[in-house]
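Tutorial, part two.
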Amino acid sequence: MTPAPPDMALKDLQAENERFAYSFLPGTLFVSLIWLIALLSYLADANLAWLGIRPRDFLGLIGVAAGPLIHSGLIHLLSNSFPLVLLSGFILFLHRAVALRVFVLVYVLSGLFTWFIGRNAFHVGASGVVYGMAGFLLFNGIIRRDRAGLAVSLAILFLYSGLFYGLFPSEERISWEGHLGGLVAGMLAALLYGEHVDKKTTIPEPPSESTKVLMLEHQTSTLPPNSYTWRYTIGSTPPAQTFERACRMNPKSGMLEPLNPDGHRTSNRI
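Running the prediction step on this input gives:
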């Protein structure tokens, strides 16, 4: 067995932890901007509701860009802040390559859907964006069997209990049209940009040609953490050979990845 170097495994773990923490930074900055606007409007005693989405009014299209930044009160602001940071962070961590496109698509489409189907009033708040990001994780998990994204979305649905009920008309002041538009935007984002995380372990290429793998197994090691070794037997002209390659478990994808793709150790078997 060829264990992974402890320093390398520790550095990989630290890098993954840092990447996870920094994934929540953009969402935190976005929420900070929303809080800053709310604070300035409170200090200036200004009502910014006119910057919201006014359905089927050409000037009301300005709300597609400005509406999610405006909130009607402290409770409304608090209810959207936590899910915005959490959902955007998990999308950036799990789907870094498409996270920006998902956010932009959800932001714009949720507003446009509200503009088409909403009641004749000013629709403000980032709830449509929240529903869109939750919908992306939910539908991507269902369509592409991305268990990590599905688990995160179900956890949000559980913690943010009003999410499901917000899809139906209940209170006059709650824009269920914006919620529904966000969910549809999230579904479209999952269809366009959703990623499938392959959980299958790939077999490293043997070092010789015209050979046939007779047996493949992987063994684990308790020291250092997340250290694994591939062992595969290759049948060719006698004697048969067994190859071993050190690898590690990728915590994001669940796949075994070689630590040194070019390095292997062989032993002969008669």
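The CA atoms of residues 143 and 191 lie 8 Å apart. In part three we will examine how such features are distributed along the chain.
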